């Protein structure tokens, strides 16, 4: 028996779920970087690298806020959105995930920049035997 085609609602729900998972993974990675930078800020080591840890901590928090904003404004996370028998979702965000690809490039570029910068900073500190 051939598979029935997905309805637009099913496709939308599936895309919402995929974006939600992806944003959750970004949030987890940002949180890990925030912990590492916070640990660095709590030690006297960071004074030797000027203001970089403070700036990374600030920028990572801003990026985390952007991820949360995207989740809130673009994804339907209402529990009933996942129920396939519904024809519509009660939350107005349902279907707005389609705008995420355009915003995703900005988010990904900023995340990559911050992640690379944090890794370079930590590697530098390790090479100097400061960590």
TrEMBL record:
Q: What is this protein called?
A: Uncharacterized protein
- Species this protein is from: Fibrisoma limi BUZ 3
């Amino acid at each position: 028996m051939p598979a029935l085609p997905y309805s637009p609602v099913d496709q939308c729900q599936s895309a919402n779920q995929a974006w939600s998972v992806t944003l959750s993974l970004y949030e987890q990675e940002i949180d890990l970087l925030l912990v590492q930078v916070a640990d660095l800020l709590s030690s006297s080591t960071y004074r030797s690298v000027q203001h970089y840890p403070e700036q990374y901590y600030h920028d990572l928090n801003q990026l985390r806020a952007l991820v949360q904003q995207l989740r809130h404004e673009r994804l339907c996370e209402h529990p009933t959105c996942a129920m396939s028998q519904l024809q519509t979702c009660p939350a107005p965000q349902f279907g707005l995930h389609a705008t995420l690809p355009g915003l995703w490039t900005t988010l990904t570029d900023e995340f990559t920049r911050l992640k690379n910068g944090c890794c370079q900073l930590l590697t530098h500190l390790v090479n100097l035997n400061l960590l």
